[in-house]
Amino acid sequence: MVHLAKVKKDNEVPSSTHDIFSISPPDRNDLDTNVYGSHFAADHMPMHEMPEREMPRQVAARMIKDELSLDGNPKLNLASFVTTYMEDEIEQIMSESFSKNFIDYEEYPHSAEIQNRCVNMIARLFNIPTDPSGENAMGTSTIGSSEAIMLGTLAMKKRWQNKRKAEGKDYSRPNIIMNSAVQVCWEKAARYFEIEERYIYCTDTRFVIDPKEAVDLVDENTIGICAILGTTYTGEYEDVKAINDLLVERNLDCPIHVDAASGGFVAPFIQPDLKWDFRLEKVVSINVSGHKYGLVYPGVGWVIWRSPEYLPQELVFNINYLGADQASFTLNFSKGASHVIGQYYQLIRLGKHGYRAIMTNITRISDYMASEFKKMGMVILSQTQGRGLPLVAWRLPTDDSRVYDEFAVAHQLRERGWIVPAYTMAPNSEKLKMMRIVIREDFSMNRCDSLLQDFKLAIETLDVMDKSMFDKYRSHFLSHRKHPQHQSRVHAHYIGEEHSLQGKTGKTHGRISIDPKRNDPPTRDLPLSTSTPAHLPPAKAMKLHPSKSGDENAAVFFVGTATTIMSVQFYKFISVDHFDKKVEGSLRRDLPIITTQHAKEHLTSQKNDSFTSVSALDPFEQVEVNIEGTAESQQPRLRVTGMPGKHVPPNRVVEKLNKLAKAVGGIPPTNGWMLELGYGRPNTTDFSCGYRIYISGDTLLVDELQEIPKRYAGQRIDLMLAHLGGTTIPSPLVGRLMEPLALMVTMDAEQGLQLIQLIRPDVTIPIHYDDYDVFASPLEDFRRIVEAAGLVDKVVFLDRREQYRFRVIK
Ligand SMILES: Cc1ncc(COP(=O)(O)O)c(C=O)c1O
């Protein structure tokens, strides 16, 4: 991202000394020579401070032009959906309109009129109801789909709030439902307007929203569902009709906004019978980018509302022009009029026939390219024959012996001038690497053939590389990334942001590094010379997998209660359910800790004695721990994901009392954890999981746990550490006397068995089953119930100080 530029500090600005030159520069006043003979050609370009003096216009223009020539060629940029070709006639008109501020309706009434014509044409293209008995639909131009989506989201939120207010109900917790593959503008909209994001996660085989899962998530606080007509990742059209029909069937008052950023100008021409637009009664608003398949240069977008009912009055401002009120709903006041004019030109110049011809051509070219890639063995992930956007998304065939990946292919193509992105799929299926080519209007068959030839050459070049040759090539292209132009432009203050989907899932950040060589003791009251023992304390007994063992390279050591120490290769970490004041006081303040939000708040608010390296995870948020200090090509990595957990059943009197009691030490909120032990190549975000451990934490078998097998569908959970014991508060004895206040806060044997049936781990180890006098369900109960269920070969029982050894696959 380069939009949010960081202002360099004095020590980051290089001094522009010319002492290294032995020949003196040309006379500063000599401007008779051409640009390259002037002193400007040998001066650094002004970068940080505005120059004191003017520069001749032909010099300024040439210098900027020369610099921009180092940008990629937009026509070869196959990553972008954005228009790169318009006819000369309209380019001329657009440049003549640069000086028109679109918002000045009074001065430029014809530009405003042109926008209104575009709104009408686009709304009708989307089958807006135009029945004279109904109210007029409405719409507006925007800078792009992002602004359009912000407006659409605001309108849904306001409408929902108004309805809740009228019913005298709480309107403080709106939520919106969407696919995890949404474009980042949806996350921004939800974040900026304080709306809870509810995601339907993609899987390794489904990259679009699951209509049933989406509608199942609707509750009284849902402002709407977003459905995408042409996802950014694979270009697939989401099944808007299925969502609509389920909402109608269940009689739910929940609107749909269709994000047709790319598909809005494709589907009406290629799949006119596909019902995704205002023909569906629950679709209340649609956005489309004029600058994508609308065939206009960036930036123009459009948003249309079915009727004023879905665009609450308080969001609209009236601006008076030529004696008539013009209603306005935008985020920005000023913007140029040229792009709206450009859109009108395309609509009337091409007409439906022209758009259909262009969309048909590029759909055919995209099908051809997909079939050629398929012949080369590529796995095609996008749709063909107009069932999705005209783009091809694919991955390399599965082949464990291949040394290169999609990112290497992208680099090879870049060396041949083509910009073809390689990327990882949306959160939850981000292990999937893929590549994508967007077929735009100016990508003719001739260009397609050239690309295919270069693609074949790229694969041939990579195929002949053996491992050591490829490693050299890789470090060459990674070092290319070290070029200042490619370095992170993110201001240091924002690097650790954890609110975006990417931030939360650790796709690009949310990363901790630990150096096992540091080896400091975890406690601070030991002498400085003390170091962590290299090995775990000797175990009383060592247990192995009940049916398949051999080549173990990792261990879990059961300390007691819920405390375990994991030891993998040369790093160790400890898992505890809580620690007391004494332990808290003794721990080193910079010890990396991953915990709940609640615990983080406590640990980091201790005035001068706060912990300094605490990461908090809500359910399904993720952090990656990089184990530094090895030169190996596969560095050990640990991925930790928060899992849901609840130990106070909802709506119990006790829950309410507990809330009141929090300040004086009530039961704090809890989490479970998924630990993925794995490896990745240095300097990459690769992660390949070699062993997956689910730690249930102090939870009951609540509905929220159902989400775990869904999210990990198709991914094996090797080990489950189940907190059992049926912990009852107050203790079982007092509890019987104090019903209904007594409650169980961890699973008993019966729930433990149900948890095994829900999570289906390969092996389960019960922990947290004895200790204080609060355990109502002893381990024996669990042993009996497991035997009765015929699951003895799925459970390993560990006593305190016993160890279970397992294998992390590399
Ligand atoms: C599905 C989708 N929605 C929204 C956007 C944002 O659109 P814009 O770039 O017009 O703001 C994009 C951009 O790629 C997109 O693909």
Annotate the secondary structure layout.
Elements: H1 57-68, H2 88-96, H3 109-125, E1 138-142, H4 145-166, E2 175-179, H5 184-192, E3 196-200, H6 211-216, E4 222-228, H7 240-249, E5 256-259, H8 267-270, E6 283-289, E7 301-305, E8 317-321, E9 324-328, H9 338-375, E10 379-380, E11 391-395, H10 406-415, E12 422-424, E13 433-438, H11 445-463, H12 467-481, H13 501-505, E14 511-514, E15 541-543, E16 554-560, E17 563-568, E18 571-575, H14 581-586, E19 593-595, H15 597-603, E20 614-616, E21 622-627, E22 635-643, H16 653-661, E23 672-680, E24 688-695, H17 707-711, E25 719-723, E26 728-729, H18 732-738, E27 743-744, H19 749-759, E28 763-767, H20 779-788, E29 802-806
Parallel strand pairs: 2-3, 2-4, 4-5, 5-6, 14-21, 15-29, 19-20, 24-25, 25-28
Antiparallel strand pairs: 1-7, 6-7, 8-9, 10-11, 11-13, 12-13, 16-17, 16-29, 17-18, 21-22, 22-23, 23-24, 26-27
Bound small molecules, which ones? Answer: pyridoxal-5'-phosphate
Q: Main β-sheet: number of strands, strand sense, barrel status?
A: 7 strands, mixed
User: Helical proportion?
Assistant: 25-40%
Alpha-carbon distance between the two ends: 34 Å
Average predicted confidence as pLDDT: 85
What is the CATH superfamily classification of the largest domain? Ribonuclease Z/Hydroxyacylglutathione hydrolase-like
Give the structural class: alpha/beta
Q: What amount of the residues lies in strands?
A: 15-25%
Q: What is the alpha-carbon Rg in Å? A: 31 Å
Q: CATH topology of the largest domain, anyone?
A: Metallo-beta-lactamase, Chain A
Uncertain parts: 503-509, 661-665, 732-740
Total number of helical segments? 20
